Amino acid sequence: MSPTIEFAIEHGDITLFDADVVALKYALKFHGADREVAFALDQVGIALEELCPTVGDYSYVETHGGIRARHALFVGVPSLSQFGYREIREFVVRVLNILSDVAPTTKHLAMTIHGPGYGLDEVEALLVQFEGYLQVIHGGGFALDLEYITIVDKNHDRVQRLRIALEKNLSNVGYASRVESRWAYRLTTPQRSIHAGRDSTLYATDIEMAGVESELKPHVFVAMPFKKDMEDVFYYGIQGPAHAIGFLCERVDQETFTGDILDRVKKRIETAAVVIAELSSANPNVYLEVGYAWGKGRPVILLVRSVKELCFDVRGQRCLTYELIKDLEKSLTKELNELKSKQLI
């Protein structure tokens, strides 16, 4: 029988989080959290070269106090442009299988969320990661003494959104129950395999098919500045309406526009059901993405706080203007529903 494991999503710094193992990806170079951990380990004498496994390989090291966790696992994966929803799920399965071999006494595993930093839908990314855990825990042959899995994220608002999304998806399943003392779920062995037919009660949510069907789901690509004061615009004014019609919602931090990330942006624009562009502040990268979307014949919805902020080359185009985020949510929901009803997206 599979073990009972507590799964949590916590606000914090992965370098300061107490766990037996921190598991990270190495996508041909360092990014985000894996960069922070690697550089912290480098400060205590662990050479960066030791933390750069080739694709399919891994590096498991003692941290010697460089970070709070006792061990770090770096798993080699393809470049970010090739690291989509399915690959996140496969990565998590690989992490657990590696630990079963090299560190079977691991009791607490800490990881970060993968995907939102380079453009993937944060909720879908969470679901595929969670399903990776389920696949191993419920699949039989689980060789770890694991008791806790924690996803750690520095962004407090993201932690709250991910918790809400997971609560929604776990509300009617039999293998998860809330822990009373803290925000966590106790995962237990289900009565039926997670690969049972679609009529199984385990398919009460989208979790079990996350990663399998993610790439087939229609998606919105959002072109907008990555600024703190625009976060609520994206997550509540844009992402909410997109999710409401069953679309994934993706964007890319333009500060990461190098090489494979730019390739990912182009591919996701080309395959988007619709591109939504927030033109306030006249960000040049946003205008570049709009031009690329038009060139590829993708439907584009333009948003702006004031028409006075528009550059001359789009002033003749129809724009949805807004002052309050709730107004944007309302008008964009209406626009998306109309386009969908006309089968334009």
What is the N-to-C succession of helices and strands? EEHEEHEHEHEEEHEHEHEEH
End-to-end Cα distance, whole Å, is 46 Å
* Strand residue percentage: 15-25%
* Proportion of residues in helical segments: 25-40%
Tally of extended strands?
13
Could you describe the 3D structure shown?
- The protein has 345 residues and is α/β, with parallel strands linked by helices.
- The chain folds into two domains: 5-209, Leucine Aminopeptidase, subunit E, domain 1, CATH 3.40.220; 218-341, Rossmann fold (3-Layer(aba) Sandwich).
- The chain has eight helices and 13 strands.
- It has helices at residues 32-42, 85-102, 122-137, 156-170, 231-244, 260-270, 284-295, 325-341; strands at 5-11, 21-26, 58-62, 71-76, 108-111, 148-153, 176-178, 185-187, 219-223, 248-250, 274-278, 300-304, 319-321.
- The strands form two sheets. The protein has an eight-stranded mixed β-sheet with strand order 3-4-2-5-6-1-8-7, with helices on both faces.
- Helix 2 packs parallel to helix 3 (122-137) and helix 5 (231-244) runs parallel beside helix 8 (325-341).
- Mean pLDDT is 88; it is low at 191-204.
